[in-house]
Specification:
GO biological process, one term: protein transport by the Sec complex
Strand content: under 5%
Order of helices and strands: HHH
Number of strands: 0
Structural class: mainly alpha
Distance between the termini: 11 Å
Transmembrane segments: 53-75
Largest sheet: none
Protein name: Protein-export membrane protein SecG
Membrane topology: Multi-pass membrane protein
Shape: elongated
Organism: Texcoconibacillus texcoconensis
Length: 76
């Protein structure tokens, strides 16, 4: 069981890194970091198409990564 969880953890980690790197940048320097964060927080920017898929995939892979990490730590 530990081996299966460890292999799945590596696969999910590589997938999560890939999905995060595929996402486009949303800010343009320091001014984008200040003003863009507030717009994202209030939900004024809507992701469409590929951006929406990458956003949802990031959330799913992050949750899987967290659960698998706890599983591997438990079996150690």
């Amino acid at each position: 069981m530990q081996t299966i969880a460890s292999v799945l953890l590596v696969i999910v980690a590589i997938s999560l890194i890939t999905v995060v790197l595929l996402q486009p940048g949303r800010s343009s320097g320091l001014s984008g970091a200040i003003s863009g964060g507030a717009e994202q927080l209030m939900g004024k920017t809507k992701a469409r198409g590929l951006e929406a898929f990458l956003s949802k995939a990031t959330v799913v892979l992050s949750v899987l990564f967290f659960i698998l990490t706890l599983t591997v730590a438990f079996f150690m």
